[in-house]
Specification:
elongated; 4-stranded antiparallel beta sheet; alpha/beta; 16 strands; about 400 residues; 2 domains; Aminopeptidase
Length: about 400
């Protein structure tokens, strides 16, 4: 199958769809227009679908050669609360909303996969499901999608997904075996002391000084309790407390996030943060409240499925254009919920083009993608899905 040729034939349609999504970004689970556009596209192509997770969409393409396995292709749909500062004719029309992470491209590629695989459904057995996930940038719609049956009827055997990569040139793809993304645990610490006059610190219990000691001590978990060759991050994102230079406040709040790539390190760090914090706070005469949340789990690739992606990408862009990534990302990704549920593979699609000025980082107000990557993404996904069902 020459999937790249078929994808290139619909390139203009892909670009138009991506620009439409880019101009009208929506956030979190509040994606009525995005969801409607996806459903309209599927109806036009004669593809059956159902909605899940408030505004998520699950499409199913049934091969006409009979019963077989089922592979799912996942795309996220939501944008970010960010002002679009690009100067182009498809700039976001919504105030403080922007597709600054490429989800518009992911959704477009998935629609392209649906169109091409539906056109060729007489050539394969089994099923292709397309999972359009909301709220990836917030709480993750994947868990709700799974709970509401996105991976059932027919039962999904494997899931594949991609993310655009602004640091990899357009025309290339990047793969990694085993761990792709870190797990995360957001936390907040409220330290309570005794307020007082700045001129008389001896009559107060200063929560700012306590907080400073806690922040410094937490970094020793990474530097002194984790193997130096294993990546772990404890980031303090905010500290707030106090109202004036000469007043010792009653309390200080600290907020941060833990990122780990091994389950045993996740357990260690989430245990040691309270132990260290409580010890320091008690020693310095204060009290504290600590809340650690369960963020996204590690995204762990199934290596056999990575081989499937590798082979597909090599067929589409050539062996020399498939890059093996050197290390996992400390970012998080809700695709991890799918990878925990089924054998899965996540990879990156190059969208950088210095000649076009497409060099700006994701989650930034100038972010863009080289749209020449759209048919490449469609072709890789289609090739992988077809080979999986054939094999």
């Amino acid at each position: 199958m020459e999937f790249l040729k078929e994808a290139l034939a619909i390139k203009d349609e892909l670009i138009a769809a991506r620009r439409d999504f880019h101009m009208y970004p929506e956030l979190d689970f509040d994606l009525p227009r995005t969801s409607k556009k996806i459903c309209e596209f599927l109806e036009k192509e004669g593809i059956e679908y159902f909605t899940v997770a408030k505004c998520g969409v699950v499409a199913t393409i049934k091969g006409q050669l009979g019963e077989g396995k089922t592979i799912a292709v996942r795309a996220d749909m939501d944008a970010l609360p960010l002002e679009d500062r690009k100067q182009c004719n498809y700039k976001s029309t919504a105030d403080s909303k922007m597709h600054a992470c490429g989800h518009d491209a992911h959704t477009t590629i998935a629609l392209g996969v649906a169109k091409v695989m539906n056109k060729n459904k007489d050539k394969f057995k089994g099923n292709v499901k397309i999972l359009f996930e909301p709220a990836e940038e917030t709480s993750g719609g994947a868990t709700l999608m799974i709970e509401e049956g996105a991976l059932e009827n027919p039962t999904v055997d494997s899931v594949i997904g991609l993310h655009v990569a602004e640091d990899i040139p357009c025309g290339k793809a990047g793969i990694i075996y085993d761990i792709f993304n870190a797990a995360s645990n957001p936390f907040t610490i409220t330290i309570k002391g005794k307020g007082g006059h700045g001129a008389h610190p001896d009559s107060a219990v200063d929560p700012i000084v306590i907080a400073a000691n806690v922040i410094n001590a937490l970094q020793t978990i990474v530097s002194r309790e984790i193997t130096p060759t294993d990546a772990t991050v404890i980031t303090i994102g905010f500290i707030s407390g106090g109202t004036a230079q000469n007043i010792i406040p009653e309390e200080v709040k600290i907020g941060g996030i833990i990122r780990t790539i091994k389950p045993e390190h996740r357990e260690l760090v989430t245990r040691r943060v309270p132990e260290i914090t409580e010890g320091i706070v008690k020693a310095m005469r204060g009290t504290c409240e600590i809340k650690i949340s369960e963020g996204y789990p590690c995204l762990i690739n199934d290596n056999a499925t990575v081989d499937l992606i590798k082979d597909a990408a090599e067929k589409v862009v050539g062996v020399e254009n498939v890059i093996k990534l050197k290390a996992p990302s400390m970012g998080v990704e809700s695709f991890a919920y799918f990878s925990n549920a089924k054998p899965s593979a996540f990879y990156v699609l190059g969208t950088r083009n210095e000649e076009k000025g497409i060099v700006h980082p994701a989650h930034g107000s100038l972010f863009d993608v080289d749209e020449d990557a759209l048919p490449i993404g469609v072709a890789i996904q289609c090739t992988a899905a077809f080979e999986f069902l054939k094999g």
